[in-house]
Design a protein that fits this description.
- The chain is an alpha+beta fold.
- The protein has a domain of 44 residues.
- The chain contains 2 helices and 6 strands.
- The protein has a 3-stranded antiparallel beta sheet, with no helix packed on it. A 3-stranded antiparallel beta sheet has the order 4-5-6, with helices on one face.
Length: 107
């Protein structure tokens, strides 16, 4: 049986470990936020949160939320009639029924 010297293998393992540590240090430096970097966008639940705060709600959603809080059966948005039906978890779900003319009557 011939005896194999462990020195080359041990040197290889040491070099491999040093290389691993260097790569790990590079990864952590890349992941760290830059000092002058802009605020990053994060998503928390269903809310899109920017560095400036929450996104503005559009006009349809504002009208729908007002109708839901007042427990109204319907509301009108841009000439369309939205009629609500009760929902056990969400309170009210609104669906578009049709167009409303200037007099406020269905077409």
């Amino acid at each position: 049986m011939t005896r194999v010297s462990r020195a080359p293998f041990e040197n290889f393992l040491i070099a491999l470990e040093e290389n691993f540590r260097e790569e790990k240090a590079k990864q952590t430096n890349e992941d760290a936020p830059q000092e002058n970097a802009p605020d990053q966008t994060k998503i928390k639940g269903n809310d899109l949160i920017l560095g400036r705060g929450r996104r503005e709600v559009n006009t349809f959603f504002k009208l729908m939320l007002e109708a839901k809080e007042a427990q109204r059966r319907y509301f009108v948005h841009k000439g369309s009639l939205y009629v609500g039906s009760p929902h056990p978890a969400l309170g009210m779900i609104y669906k578009r029924q049709g167009q409303v003319d200037a007099d406020g009557e269905d077409q």
